[in-house]
User: Fold this.
Amino acid sequence: MFHKLLIANRGEIACRVARAARALAARTVAVYSDADERALHVEQCDEAVRVGPAPARESYLDAEKILAAAKRTGAEAIHPGYGFLSEQASFAEACAAAGVVFVGPPPGAMRAIKDKAQARTVMRDAGVPVAPGSEGHVTPDAALDEARALGFPLLVKAAGGGGGIGMQVANDEPELVKALRACADRARASFGRDAVYLERYFPAPRHVEVQVLGDDRLTLHLGARECSIQRRHQKILEEAPATAFELPSPRPQVREKLLHAGLAAARAVGYANAGTCEFLLVGDEVYFIELNARLQVEHPVTEAVTGLDLVQLQIRVAAGERLPIGQDDVKTRGHAIECRVNAEDPVKFFPSPGRIVRFDTPVPADGRFHDGVRIDAGYRAGDTVTPFYDSLLAKLVVHAPTRREAIARLRAALDAFAVEGVKTNLPLHRRVAASDAFARGDLDTRFLEKLA
Amino acid sequence: MIDVPAHITGTVWKIEKKPGDPVSAGDVLVILESMKMEMPVEAPEDGKVSEVRCKEGQPVSEGEVLVVLAK
Assistant:
């Protein structure tokens, strides 16, 4: 095991990784920008290194500064969390060259899926069902021909994109021309490259995903999650097991098809460590959309139902240990639901930066379950939420023997959660949790629009 | 004159209009970025851009005037 681990992230996930490292008796090094000097994650680590000014590009995204901090503090490994440097193969390679272990998949697997258009080809060749779309990247001229062959509506996506950024729907040719330009502009500015591709646009699919975990010899799945409740293509509520295969009536064959496709996708690129294969579910068909080569925000719902600590397992695998479990040891118990509590207007979804004056959580925000309720937080009262980073304040996770009981627990926990000083989406979560549609499991990616 | 302020605190991501451009109500004048989200700032009424008071990449606070429109 490592003696010292550097956590190249901030907010709740940096706190989460620190907790796992402590449990494994590893010392922790935080990094922080000028905006985060007094942040919770800095307090929760044994040491902290300033890596630059507030903008992420000059701090959390600066690979050289992060690596230098690891060398200076003698950290043997770097956990990247999610976002920031977590999916940059070049960073993983730079770590290896510097003799520092990157807690994540092998750089080769990261490269194979980094370009999302290329990943589609790899997956299709491996027999994984992918959504109909263009052959690789499209130029504006070729896009019109491809679009005529595929038919509208289509989604224009940035090959280097993610997190809902760099995606545009096109319902006809004039919209496609506009979408291609807008998407390429956004992609160039956000991801440094303007390559785009086309994918069939499904108006109201369900979003399901497979958690995978591997070492250099085994690849396991830890079951499916459902993340259909989204705003602006970003998830706000996730569940495990996936409700899509339980309600209104069980669909075990479709679930098996999904799990099989998830494993096939991971094996196709020689995946190791933790990752998530994301799919759209349309009727009984599943379509691969992407493989996220990192820990997901919503990993706690899988931890709740499997009883496994994914972050500890990530660190142990990175340290060269073999997985202590096989596929037959993975059992799921009960139902878990996670709400992402964001600093944003609950109606318009506008970001809401500011100073938090009250932050009362239903149970202690220590990342552990207390009577089936767990809070992972990146902030506390007195902290300032700045516009520089994402809006996630905390995650509320509930676990109960059945989905019905989990919803009851969720309603009570949401009522006991109070944040003042910044607007949050807690009122939105309360409306979702109280709705009949949610109780029925009648979910798709348009859920929030229909809730209004 | 109509002052068009930033509706959120963030960074100016893109300026879509320049002085002299005619605009209709609802046209996007500036796109702000905050917390990894894009937020368009739209013209509240028809008019003409008389002044752009921000630069791309500039941090702005809620309420700060970004664009001035002439009727």
Q: What stands out?
A: The mean pLDDT of chain B is 92. Chain B is about 0% helix and 55% strand. Chain B has one domain: 2-70.
